[in-house]
Write a structure and sequence with these properties.
alpha/beta
Length: 427
């Protein structure tokens, strides 16, 4: 995850979307008898087996209909979703990051799907992602999958699993050279920065009545940010202004002792799930050399006390029906397939925590899966505000972390960040 809305103003988006809502609702009463249903999925997380199952099942159950899956990027969610969902050529079903769902719901771009919540799984739905897709008491985006970050390492480079967060940093420092990051920590990777704040009892922002109070400059958060700056300066040679996308490559090149990535990255590292878009001219990686990926290790990021884990960001995706879908009932039918046990098992086999609890038994019984389960047992999310998407879109957290990674004054940077976060959340 994840997770990454682009810079759109939700107030303006609300006006655009709500002006078109009637068109989407009218479409329900004039549902076409045949047509093509469009489903937008983000990135390559959804395996081909699941995509084929969705297409084949939907078309078999809906005579005269075809289903087309279009693969989008997280940049698309940021930059093009709002305009597309507001248009008369809207997709029908879309995947969004779990931190983004409330913003789209608040903007009037998602259909209320509370009427099929039981058919989608009811109490079997993953509760954290139900909360992420619930707005004003109604379900607008159903759980799709969840994922947690674990720390990967190779026994060729690391011979001890640290017991505490401070031990982890110390081992990372000892492994670091001019060309090797003991801990691969680029400045823009804010999802992996949050556990340092949370481990010391800090928060992103807390709500007091109708007002949000940002907490990056609290004493607790500052302790975590100071330790994080120690990582940036002494345990990482990753670009201060870089993101996490190069972590797998650095690891496979023997240039990183520890990387913190979603558990499904195991397949990328071992070569079970190659990455890279050959059609787009990208080099397709088959994973790490066998010698380096052999006996790949993983553990949940440790907390301040031995035997405890640090809170991690609970990533994941939700799926929703577009308000302006020309075929909302068919879109709901597709959604029911995507939340069926047969489909969700295919996600679980990929290493993704499924959106329905009953499919979790299909998760691989591997050390990586066990590490993810331990990590997700102590996980947190971003503030439950419909304006949170705008915070992500503004890139103010990554920008602040880049400054910290460059050696800036942590207190000053955090204080400015709090002012920026509050201006958006309370705007």
């Amino acid at each position: 995850m994840k997770h990454k809305l682009g810079a759109f103003a939700l107030v303006g988006a609300s006006a655009v979307a709500l002006a078109g809502c009637a068109g989407g609702n009218d479409a329900a009463s004039t549902e076409p008898e045949t047509g093509d249903l469009t489903v937008w999925l983000v990135g390559t997380d959804t395996p081909q087996t699941a995509r084929d199952h969705l297409t084949e099942t939907f078309e078999a159950e809906n005579e005269g209909w075809t289903l087309t899956i279009e693969e989008k990027t997280w940049a698309d969610v940021s930059d093009t979703y709002t305009a597309a969902l507001s248009s008369n050529d809207s997709p029908d079903v879309v995947e969004v990051g779990n931190t983004q769902a409330l913003g789209f719901a608040d903007a009037g771009l998602f259909l209320d799907i509370s009427d099929i919540q039981e058919q989608l799984g009811g109490d079997d739905l993953l509760s954290g992602l139900v909360d992420a897709g619930t707005y004003d008491g109604a379900l607008y985006a159903a759980p799709y999958y969840a994922g947690g970050r674990v720390v990967f390492y190779s026994p060729m480079m690391v011979d001890e699993v640290p017991a505490t967060l401070e031990d982890y940093v110390a081992v990372g420092e000892a492994l670091t050279t001019d060309s090797v990051s003991g801990i691969y920590a680029p400045g823009k990777d804010w999802y992996n920065a949050l556990p340092y704040i949370w481990a010391y009892g800090g928060e992103i922002a807390v709500q007091d009545g109708d007002t949000w109070d940002a907490q990056f400059s609290s004493p607790e958060s500052l302790e975590g940010l100071e330790l994080l700056q120690q990582v940036y300066l002494n345990a990482s040679v990753a670009p201060a202004d870089g993101n996490e996308l190069m972590a797998n490559i650095a690891f496979c090149n023997g240039e990183a002792g520890f990387i913190s990535s979603p558990a499904w990255a195991e397949g990328n590292l071992t070569g079970a799930w190659p990455w890279g878009d050959e059609a787009a001219g990208e080099e397709v990686s088959e994973g790490c050399p066998d010698t380096y990926a052999k006996d790949l290790g993983a553990f949940a990021l440790p907390g301040l006390t031995e035997g405890e884990t640090a809170p991690i960001f609970a990533g994941g995706s939700n799926v929703a029906v577009a308000t302006k879908s020309a075929a909302p009932e068919k879109a709901k039918a597709a959604l029911e397939i995507m939340l069926s046990e047969d489909y969700q098992v295919l996600l679980a086999e990929q290493g993704l925590t499924p959106g329905i609890v009953s499919a979790a038994s299909a998760l691989p019984d591997t050390p990586v899966a066990q590490a993810q389960a331990a990590a997700l047992a102590n996980s947190k999310g971003t503030p439950a505000s419909p304006n949170w998407a705008e915070v992500e879109a503004a890139q103010i957290i990554p920008d602040a972390l880049v400054k910290i990674a460059q050696g800036g004054d942590v207190t000053e940077i955090a204080t400015t960040l709090d002012e920026q976060v509050e201006a958006i959340l309370n705007g």
